[in-house]
Each structure stands twice: as structure tokens, then as C-alpha cells.
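sry for the spam today, last one i promise. C-alpha cells for design, 212 residues
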């Protein structure tokens, strides 16, 4: 007789929505993809996206095995991790609040590199960025979606969802780079809208982590 593992689908849906919102909001990674695509074409942009998303697998693995051990050893430590995550997300919201609303696109001085070079650059940019590790640590633990499923598996599921959603959105940015670049330069309201959307998501997740 097979055991049925109950999954909390609303949590997964919320994770997908939060991931999509954060992927759309202007940040160093998607702006880098956009400028590469505008200057060197959509294939070069997609190579950059592939490198960035592959780097996310490294952070997912570190998180899955590191935090899962802590959860098994001490539930209090896991609660402290979630509180740390909430504090960090509020800090990110404050940083976004302090930042200008205008989206800066600087396509000058971008070298025309090969697809492999851009893949490597995207991968290294992601893996060696400690802010990504901290963000994963802050973002993922509050979205564990099953009391029965192994936490390592849950973190990998979240990691692959994060990568898939981000790849779709970053890939769309690369393909639509010419249109998006022109629109972002002409639209002042869009930058303000995306800024506050990012703040709302960060604050909402932080509140969710505290009261989970």
C-alpha cells in the first residue's frame, strides 16, 4: 500500500508568484541579461541566462544540505533562520525604497563575447555572489510545503521551480530586449511601479516568515 504524501499547493503557488515578481523586478541579473541582449543579440542573452540559472543549482545544493541538517538537529535554529530571513528581506525592501525609481540601462562598453564565455560569466557571477546565498537562505525556508517529504527534496523542488520560473522570465527579457529596452527608457511610471511591487513582495514574505 502506497503512502500518500500531502503537499501544500497554496504555498507552492505563492512561491511561484513571489519568484515571478522578483524575476520581473529590475535587478543586477536581469538588467545584465537585457543589456547583453540589446548589444549582442538574443542568443548571447540566453547564454547569459543559462549560466545564471546553472549557478542557482549550486546555491540550492548548499541550502538543501546545510539547512536540512539544522532542521533535523534543532527546530529552534530553524525558527531563528526564518527570523533572520525576514529581517534580511525587510533590509532588501529598505534598500529598494532608497534606490531611484529610474531604471538605469548602461549598454556602453559591453564586449561581444562567445556563447560559452557568456555562460561562464553568468555562472561565475551567480556562484561567487554571497548575496545570492543569503537571499536563498532568507527566501526558501518559509516555503517548505510538506510535513512528510524529506526537506532536501523540498529545497530542490523549490530550487528547480525558482530556476524554471526565472529562466522563462529572463529568457523573455533576452528575446524581447529591443522592445523592452526602448520601453524602459521611455516609461517613467514603469520603474516606479516595479520598485513598489518589489518592496511589497519583500515585506509580504518577511511578514509571512514571522507569522508562519
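last one done:
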Amino acid at each position: 500500500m502506497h503512502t500518500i504524501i500531502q503537499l501544500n499547493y497554496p504555498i507552492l503557488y505563492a512561491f511561484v508568484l513571489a519568484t515571478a515578481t522578483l524575476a520581473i523586478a529590475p535587478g543586477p541579473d536581469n538588467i545584465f541579461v537585457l543589456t547583453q541582449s540589446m548589444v549582442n543579440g538574443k542568443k548571447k542573452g540566453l547564454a547569459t541566462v543559462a549560466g545564471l540559472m546553472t549557478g542557482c543549482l549550486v546555491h540550492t545544493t548548499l541550502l538543501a544540505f546545510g539547512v536540512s541538517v539544522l532542521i533535523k538537529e534543532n527546530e529552534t535554529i530553524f525558527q531563528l533562520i526564518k527570523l533572520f530571513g525576514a529581517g534580511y528581506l525587510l533590509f532588501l525592501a529598505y534598500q529598494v525604497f532608497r534606490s531611484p525609481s529610474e531604471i538605469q540601462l548602461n549598454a556602453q562598453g559591453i564586449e561581444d563575447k562567445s556563447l560559452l564565455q557568456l555562460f561562464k560569466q553568468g555562472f561565475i557571477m551567480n556562484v561567487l555572489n554571497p548575496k545570492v546565498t543569503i537571499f536563498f537562505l532568507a527566501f526558501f525556508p518559509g516555503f517548505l510545503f510538506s510535513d512528510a517529504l524529506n526537506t532536501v527534496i523540498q529545497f530542490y523542488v523549490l530550487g528547480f521551480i525558482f530556476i524554471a520560473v526565472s529562466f522563462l522570465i529572463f529568457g523573455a527579457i533576452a528575446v524581447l530586449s529591443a522592445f523592452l529596452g526602448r520601453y524602459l527608457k521611455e516609461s517613467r511610471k514603469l520603474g516606479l511601479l516595479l520598485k513598489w511591487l518589489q518592496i511589497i513582495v519583500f515585506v509580504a514574505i518577511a511578514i509571512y516568515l514571522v507569522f508562519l
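The mean pLDDT is 87. ok im logging off now
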